[in-house]
Amino acid sequence: MSHCTDCALIHLGTAKGNSRTGGARDLVSVPCAPLDWFVDELPAPDLVKIDVEGAELVVLENGGRVLRDVRPLMIVETAPENAAAMAALLQRHEYLMFDVEGELDRARERPAWNKLAVPAERRQAVIDYRRRQDQH
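Above: the chain sequence. Below: its structure as tokens.
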């Protein structure tokens, strides 16, 4: 995995991070790999949660096979400065965006801070599930 890790670190070095944290407080090395690497190494996920303090575009730009072939539901925290590019990337892969805490009847054109990204072909199943949960 070291080659994968090196590639991921190079890409993550271009991410700006999030000003909410006041900039970098500590520098910690962590193993990381492109999102598509996980498709080869682990069972395909039904849900992906991404919270990477402003590097969400880097993660998804290196996840083309996951977006194209696996098509999981995703919960993605999106920094405001990445909203337009994130919307374009998800729309290009035919994902619909919803506010995590909002209604599922109306897709958003731009992502909310915490968004649920749903492959277009799975929208009705997600709406039906949410309605069943609301009835309990």
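The CA atoms of residues 125 and 131 lie 10 Å apart.
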